[in-house]
């Protein structure tokens, strides 16, 4: 089964589900949601799933969802910030006045 990203608002995090049955939490991106902004705090992929590209799938999934919801992104998490840096088509999600603070 293909990995999928799902929002778990009760846990303030997105999870990427993978594994043979597609129901195993392979990683997550914690966030804080406030007034039209989503601040990504921490991203983690379980070591058992390392090297499979799931971190990139998770980053793309959370940022695509933020875009669809009209949220501004504050990438405090180094992984999400670095991923945006490598994929400039997502830079517009970060408020222009705050991009320098994140090195974008």
TrEMBL record:
It holds the Pfam family Acetyltransf_CG. It comes from Streptomyces gardneri. PROSITE patterns: GNAT_YJDJ. GO terms for molecular function: transferase activity. Residues 6-95 form the N-acetyltransferase domain. The keyword Ribonucleoprotein does not apply. Keywords: Transferase. This is N-acetyltransferase. It comes from the Bacteria. SUPFAM superfamilies: Acyl-CoA N-acyltransferases (Nat) (SSF55729). PANTHER family: BSR4717 PROTEIN, PROTEIN NATD1.
